[in-house]
Each structure stands twice: as structure tokens, then as C-alpha cells.
Amino acid sequence: MKSKVNKLTESVSDIDRVSRAVSLSIKTHRKQQKLSLDELSRRAGVSKGMLVEIEKGSANPSIAILCKVAAALGLSVAEIVNISDDPPAYRIDPAAMPVLWQGEKGGTARLLAGTRGPDMIELWRWEMHPGESFASAGHPQRTWELLHVEQGELTLTIAEQSLQVPQGSAAVARTAAPHGYANRTSQLLVFTMTVAEMHSH
């Protein structure tokens, strides 16, 4: 059941659009870097079978898998889903903001904007219905998340620590360790999140 929760889903057109963008992007960057599927699989810690399915456009990878493949290619998730560009300033329209997680009760995580990486910054907007949760195995060492709760109350868990973040409050978290977000209330939870992953020293 859990595998269904983390999929790239929304409307069929959104699934198709994101799958096509991810498929083409990963294949193109892998070939540019002269990496075999076996080598990318080893670097990313993702099975070769999954990579084949992704490149064919027939798999909807989870956020965790996208993060691993992006990191192995030295890219940001935004670059892989094609919402990143090079000019000093550019606009991203709502239709180009992919939903990369959907909860079992209709919650969503939408990637609003992101920089080109390996040093990447992403802006997300999450909506979680009562009882929904999301777990991450953790990011690279130098990763920070800044969260601001617009509505409801977020339960943020990192390793052994659990933090309640009520409406109007913000939180700063180092998210190399396993972590998760949950809505343990009876109200809708809405929060924005910035993820900064720094690789250079």
C-alpha cells in the first residue's frame, strides 16, 4: 500500500507529462555523462530494472527515487522534471508545477520551483489531510529544510525527535537523517518547505 502513496500522481495529463519529462531528462543526462544503466544504478542505489522502466516512461518513481537519481547525475529534481531554466529570472506557471506525492486521502506535495543543482534549492507546497504522513530515508549530509505552516499543525519527526509546528510557526531541520511529516490533527495541514542541498565546500 505504501508504494502507492509516494507516486507521481494527479490528473492523467500531469502523470504523463511528468513521466515523459523525467524519462527524457534522465536518458539524455545519462548519455551525456556516458553512464551505463548499470553504473547509474550503482551510483544511485536504484535497481537497473527501475531505471529501465523510468527511461521507457512506464514508471512513476517516488520522490525518494527521483532524489537518488538526480544526485547520482549531479542534478536537482527541478532539472529532471524540467521546471528549471538558466536566465537571471523566469516565471513558472501553475501548470508547470508538478505534483510529486499524493496522499491516500488526496493530499499533495507540489514542487513550485527549483534551481539547477548539484547545489540545489527547492520550494515545495504540501497539503496533508488528517491522518496522512510522508517518510523520507534522509538526504545528503549538507541538507537543510525550512518549513512554514500556513494552516493546521505539522508533526515533524527527525531520527528520535518529534516536533509540533502549529499554524504561523516555522521550523529549521537538518534532514540527512530519516525524517517525516504528518498531520495528526482533524484539520487540513498546509505548509511550504524550502530544501537546500549543498555539495560544494
From TrEMBL:
GO cellular component: cytosol
Protein name: XRE family transcriptional regulator
Swiss-Prot/TrEMBL keywords: DNA-binding, Plasmid, Transcription, Transcription regulation
Signal peptide coordinates: none
CDD domains: cupin_XRE_C (cd02209), HTH_XRE (cd00093)
A Pfam match: Cupin_2
Record has DNA-binding as a keyword: yes
InterPro entries listed in its UniProt record: Cro/C1-type_HTH, Cupin_2, Lambda_DNA-bd_dom_sf, RmlC-like_jellyroll, RmlC_Cupin_sf, TransReg_Diox_bact_type
PANTHER family: HTH-TYPE TRANSCRIPTIONAL REGULATOR, HTH-TYPE TRANSCRIPTIONAL REGULATOR SUTR
Gene3D superfamilies for this protein: Jelly Rolls (2.60.120.10), lambda repressor-like DNA-binding domains (1.10.260.40)
UniProt GO MF annotations: DNA binding; DNA-binding transcription factor activity
HTH cro/C1-type domain: residues covered: 26-80
